[in-house]
Amino acid sequence: MNTTAVGSPETGARSRTRDLLHRPLTWLIVICAGWAIARLVGVDRLPLLAGLLVPILTFTPYVAVVSVVLVVLTLAFRRWKAFGVALAVSAAFAAAVLPRAFGNAAPVTGGPVLRVLTANLRLGQANPHVLVDLVRRTHADLLSMQEFTPQAGAAFDRAGLGRLLPYKITTPLGNALGSALYARWPLRPRPMFQVDLIGLAIPHAEVDVPGGRRVEVMAVHLAHPMNPSGVGQWNRAFVLLPTGQRQGPVRILAGDFNATLDHTSLRRLIGEGYVDAAYETGSGLIPTFRQWWVPPITLDHVLADARCGVRRVKVYDLPGSDHRAVFAELRLP
């Protein structure tokens, strides 16, 4: 007598679901694997690929989350080969992304404390009273502002910024071109890059911090790398920005880099004598830029001389701006 085993309806439904998901799962794994390789190898540094990959790699943390979902799905549907690949891809993303949430041990330093605040004003539209109050509450010693317009300069004067940070070097320009540095102590201007070379103004100065330490600071704002012209200006700025030093003045770069830690150019710059303050304190995944059509991403950074210790980092909402302000408290060497 012949017998035929008939699976339950539930078993048949699971099988049909596995078959239905097999191709999209495979393609998603392939895409995530290519993304992980591009991020780890740093192919965005290649001129012919930079225009495409620099904007795309900005969203690497989100793809890292997708890779974890793929691990769960391939395990649930018992696609063992796909599960192995998805697990390897997820591990690669974890190695690239997760350290930002844990931080590093700060070097032991005995110098004075320096408090740095940076804020992109969104074409000068950020609420000046909120930012001035933030300077007051954080006891900021240096303030870097981007997209600093003539109208914004007047508004901050009226809001009383000069009473808290009386020294300044400003380049108030229209649209997003202008930037400014405000300080608690006298600023000595240093040569600036030509605006037509990198697209935006980057004020540059030295300041003597009480306690005997000289600090060199830049209010950084780099071009949007969203088109060939922007990518060219963005790359030129990264080449021109000064490296850190083992001796001499402490260097601090604070502002809107239009770059995340998934961009090779920013990681290369950090590796040349800086630390990213948010990364060092486990705050490297906190987003600093958000718009309705763009998932929140981390474009604003305080890069401190690697000789500094980073004591704490805090990110604050800034009404009127699509960026958030970043505050870093540093212990100088």
Automatic annotation (TrEMBL):
Residues 117-323 form the Endonuclease/exonuclease/phosphatase domain. Keywords: Endonuclease, Hydrolase, Membrane, Nuclease, Transmembrane, Transmembrane helix. The keyword Transcription does not apply. The chain crosses the membrane at residues 24-42, 48-75, 82-102. It comes from Actinoallomurus vinaceus. This is Endonuclease/exonuclease/phosphatase family protein. Signal peptide: none annotated. Pfam families: Exo_endo_phos (PF03372). One of its GO terms (molecular function) is endonuclease activity. The keyword Metal-binding does not apply.
